[in-house]
Structures are given as structure tokens and as C-alpha cells.
Design a protein that fits this description.
single chain, about 50% helix
């Protein structure tokens, strides 16, 4: 089985590659540093499974794993993509499903568990572990929160979301309450802790 890892942390790639090769003689793992290679359908057909990290800031600017997954599947719909992340927030799991990924795996789990998931997806199954939504932000609240956390001013967020400043204030009050934060600094810290930072 040929596996392609798309990951912007070389140390993680080297670690997971070594572990996968050591634990399963049937796996051949590759890694790319140039995402332009993913525009070649002949290249993509070489791989049975693609492990796609969500946060790819060091590998490519302005593109995350969700965007890249959509792009790959437009070119090669048969690609079996498992999304990887250090965060398993339910909103990420839902977004991975919407993108067409076949699985979602948290990096804090063991290599043995990852191997099991790889074989499940390889055999045609889906793997999306159900998670409790602790945050419970609505889609609109999440949109507002992500934009506001990205450093935009309130007026800029309101303009991008096509809402008034008073409506924005209502959204932010609800968001702060659900996240149990009192100010912008605490808000950004909590958004980072839940794995939202850098995902737009």
C-alpha cells in the first residue's frame, strides 16, 4: 500500500513514516514539499491513501488541508484522503466530511490506531469518530469568530459577514458566553486552544 503524507512539520512526517514502515511491512510512505505535485493526476494515482494535515501554513500560504482536499478530489475523485490534526473539534470533523475526506484522525492517538484507520479507509470504509460539541457555536457564530480571531476589526468583520455592527455585537456576546471568555485576549487563547486558529 502506497501512502502520501501532506504535512508541514518534517519531524512529524519522519516520525509517522518510520512508525508506519516499522509496524506494517505492506506500507510504503512518501512525503512532498511542493503541493504543485498534487495537480498531476498521474502522480495522485500512485497512492492508495493520502494523509492530509489541516494546518499547512509552513508548506503553503493561504491554503489549508480542507481547501487542498477539495482541490485534489476535483482532479481525482477516487482519492482516499484521511485528514490529520492535533485538534478533533466537531466542527473540523464536519468540515472534513463536507470536503469529501474518507476519514479524520487525531494526532494524539497511537500509530496502531492510525494503521487500523488506514486499512479501514483503504477497504472502502469511512472513519469519523463522533465527538461532543463542547463549544456549540452556530455556523454563523463560527464564521464571525474565525474572522474576528484573524485580527480583523469589528467593522471589517461586519462588512465581510454582511451584518450590522449591532448584530455583530450580539454575535460576539453569544460567542464570548459560549466560550466562557471575558475579553479579546482570552477569546483568541480559547480559539487557539480549541484548534480554530488559522482555519478560515
Amino acid at each position: 500500500m502506497k501512502i502520501l503524507i501532506i504535512e508541514d512539520h518534517k519531524m512529524f512526517y519522519e516520525s509517522i513514516s518510520t512508525e508506519l514502515n516499522k509496524r506494517s511491512n505492506s506500507m510504503n510512505v512518501d512525503y512532498i514539499t511542493n503541493i504543485d505535485m498534487l495537480k498531476n493526476i498521474a502522480f495522485l494515482r500512485n497512492y492508495d491513501i493520502i494523509l492530509m494535515d489541516i494546518n499547512l501554513a509552513k508548506l503553503c500560504e493561504n491554503i489549508d488541508g480542507f481547501i487542498l482536499t477539495r482541490d485534489v478530489l476535483k482532479l481525482y475523485p477516487d482519492a482516499k484522503i484521511i485528514m490529520l490534526t492535533a485538534f478533533d473539534n466537531i466542527s473540523f470533523i464536519d468540515k472534513a466530511k463536507e470536503c469529501g475526506a474518507r476519514g479524520f484522525f487525531s494526532k494524539d492517538k497511537s500509530t496502531s490506531e492510525l494503521i487500523n484507520v488506514i486499512y479501514k479507509v483503504y477497504e472502502g470504509q469511512l472513519y469519523f469518530e463522533e465527538k461532543k460539541d463542547n463549544c456549540k457555536l452556530t455556523r454563523k457564530e463560527l464564521e464571525v469568530a474565525l474572522l474576528y480571531c484573524s485580527g480583523l476589526s469589528r467593522s471589517q468583520v461586519a462588512k465581510k459577514c454582511y451584518i450590522s455592527m449591532s448584530t455583530l455585537a450580539s454575535y460576539l456576546n453569544s460567542i464570548y458566553s459560549k466560550l466562557e471568555v471575558r475579553n479579546y485576549q482570552e477569546f483568541c487563547i480559547e480559539m487557539t486552544r480549541q484548534g480554530y486558529t488559522g482555519i478560515l
